[in-house]
């Protein structure tokens, strides 16, 4: 999670929302990303999506991997996470009504989507006093 906070700080310094994400597989970071939506003028360049795309350059499958992010993935990112069968999502704080675990649009956690595997395990990271 420390790397997520570093990436979030970089994003904030670049005028972006302070979000950073990493993908870990077999204990190794295989992808990372910070928010790039404003810089790239592309709303899909959320930190989680950037990290997933980076990880896909390094491996053929994200099944069984863990995504760490300092903020709960939104609906857009939740779709991508489910599509790539990421096994666990660890985040530090909820993002409100557009978060992927928020009902009635709990895209990240709902088992009701028959075309996807089971939803990822959700772990809430206990933040340190410095963040």
Automatic annotation (TrEMBL):
<protein>
    <submittedName>
        <fullName>CMP/dCMP deaminase zinc-binding</fullName>
    </submittedName>
</protein>
<dbReference type="InterPro" id="IPR016192">
    <property type="entry name" value="APOBEC/CMP_deaminase_Zn-bd"/>
</dbReference>
<dbReference type="InterPro" id="IPR002125">
    <property type="entry name" value="CMP_dCMP_dom"/>
</dbReference>
<dbReference type="InterPro" id="IPR016193">
    <property type="entry name" value="Cytidine_deaminase-like"/>
</dbReference>
<feature type="domain" description="CMP/dCMP-type deaminase">
    <location>
        <begin position="1"/>
        <end position="105"/>
    </location>
</feature>
<dbReference type="Pfam" id="PF00383">
    <property type="entry name" value="dCMP_cyt_deam_1"/>
</dbReference>
<keyword id="KW-0479">Metal-binding</keyword>
<dbReference type="GO" id="GO:0016787">
    <property type="term" value="F:hydrolase activity"/>
</dbReference>
<dbReference type="GO" id="GO:0008270">
    <property type="term" value="F:zinc ion binding"/>
</dbReference>
<keyword id="KW-0862">Zinc</keyword>
